[in-house]
Design brief:
single chain; alpha/beta; Aspartate Aminotransferase, domain 1; Aspartate Aminotransferase, domain 2; 2 domains; seven-stranded mixed β-sheet; 15 strands; 38% helix; binds pyridoxal-5'-phosphate
């Protein structure tokens, strides 16, 4: 009996797809929605399920230039048909890409390492900061997510590491523009928390390597940040000899509409930048960008090689993504359609007291849902009801934030004003329905 025959015979006769998944991938392998979606095809901003139903994708930032964009697919196919090796051979694709990528940054950021995931990129960034500072202490917010390697998951608050957090990690309170607007004024409160974290590391005899943050605080619920919000905290880190790591996995590649990178929008120049998700439109490619000096120090300290990172196919794909962003003026589109959608979303807050705050930038926006605006008590159940009802009506979106109560809308970049109309009209109906049910 072959292995596959044996496997088939051990399957229950009427096993559901979800049951099969649980059996093969583990019962807790994460799925979106009470009734998960079985997708079989994607095109632009549309996804199709196995029953032929069409969904408007208002969530997936990975398919940055649209699902299965023909220019990206063609680049992948062409290079995969020609050659795919790794970075221990000479090849121009990675050089052409890194040249083009680094041209989008401040003049100090000129070199890169390519990886396969954002987690790997952040793992390298932490090691770069350690190599450059000679220290281990690292600061992040207390509601963040920077990935899943052993080192990076030390920074996660939702699933703390077995055996407790490493002594060199300090987590500072994530700002909350809705509940504590007074603390948002000039970033001083955040800066003070960072200063206290540096002092606490020093008290324990641990020096500072740096601070890692998403400049949009995406996983923290993308609070509204005034210009220069991070300046005080960044000065404190630099004065203590630490480096600044900007995790651009979510706001990068023009998503916020005003700038190509989130740190440019926030108004600071990091020492190290990491990126991933949108970079390959679904193909696993990610990167760390830094200065010549930091990269040289890292290479001296750790002989780094990544079998798949920066292979010619990944570089061809990543290059094609940049082509499409330029050719279809998608950053300007994010600015225009994002502003249009936010203008249409705000009036919904006048109609529903359970919308606490509408916020976001470009094609990354949403609303914080609360039990009532006075108490500001978060309403994660309402957010869950809304996203499931949206899914039932054919629009895919998500929720995030410290309390899991922030509606998260982050569609592929070719999202149009018509798509925004469909999204907001459907959301309006769903919010009326949810308000009716809880009245
Ligand atoms: C801010 C941020 N950084 C890093 C990661 C990890 O990226 P990856 O899943 O490609 O390892 C994520 C993933 O959601 C993320 O949101």
């Amino acid at each position: 009996m072959t292995l596959s025959q044996k496997n088939r015979e051990s399957q229950p006769a009427q096993e559901t797809l979800i049951g099969r998944r649980g059996r093969l991938l583990g019962a807790k392998s994460q799925l979106f929605y009470d009734e998960p979606v079985h997708l079989v095809r994607g095109e632009g901003v549309w996804l199709h399920d196995a029953d032929g139903r069409k969904y408007l994708d208002a969530y997936n930032n990975v398919a940055h230039v649209g699902h299965c964009h023909p220019h990206v697919v063609e680049a992948l196919y062409r290079q995969a048909s020609l050659l795919n090796t790794h970075t221990r051979y000479l090849h121009t694709a990675i050089l052409d890409y890194v040249e083009r990528l680094t041209a989008t940054f401040d003049a100090s950021l000129t070199t890169a390492i390519l990886t396969c995931t954002g987690s790997e990129a952040n793992d390298i960034a932490l090691r770069m900061a350690q190599a450059a500072s000679g220290q281990m202490g690292i600061i992040a917010t207390d509601a963040t997510y920077h990935g899943n390697t052993t080192a990076v998951s030390q920074l996660s608050t939702r699933m703390p590491p077995v055996g407790g957090r490493a002594p060199y990690v300090r987590l500072v309170p994530a700002p909350d523009s809705f509940r504590h607007p007074e603390a948002m004024a000039d970033g001083r409160a955040f800066g003070d928390a960072v200063r206290e974290a540096i002092a606490s590391l020093a008290r324990d005899g641990i020096g500072l390597s740096g601070m890692i943050l998403c400049p949009m605080l995406a996983n923290e619920g993308f609070p509204t940040l005034p210009g220069g919000f991070f300046d005080d905290a960044i000065s404190a880190v630099r004065e203590a000899g630490g480096l600044i790591i900007s995790d651009e996995v979510q706001p990068g590649f023009g998503r916020t509409g005003s700038h190509f990178w989130g740190h440019q929008r926030a108004g600071f120049v990091p020492d190290i930048v990491t990126m991933g998700k949108p970079m390959g439109n679904g193909h696993p490619v990610a990167a760390v960008v830094t200065t010549t000096k930091i990269l040289a120090t890292f290479r001296d300290a750790f002989r780094y090689f990544n079998t798949f990172g920066g292979n010619p196919v990944s570089c061809a794909v990543a290059n094609a993504v940049l082509d499409v962003l330029e050719d279809e003026a998608l950053v300007a589109n994010a600015r225009d359609v994002g502003a249009y959608a936010l203008d249409r979303l705000r009036p919904l807050a006048d109609r529903h007291a359970f919308i606490g705050e509408v916020r976001g930038a470009g094609l990354f926006f949403g609303a914080e849902l609360v039990r009532d605006r006075e108490t500001r008590e978060p309403a994660p159940d309402t957010a869950g009801r809304v996203i499931n009802a949206m899914r039932d009506r054919g629009v895919l979106m998500g929720k995030t934030g410290i309390h899991g109560n922030v509606l998260k809308i982050r569609p592929p970049m070719p999202f149009s004003r018509d798509n925004a109309d469909l999204l907001i009209d459907t959301l309006g109906q769903v919010l009326d329905e949810v308000a009716g049910a809880s009245a």
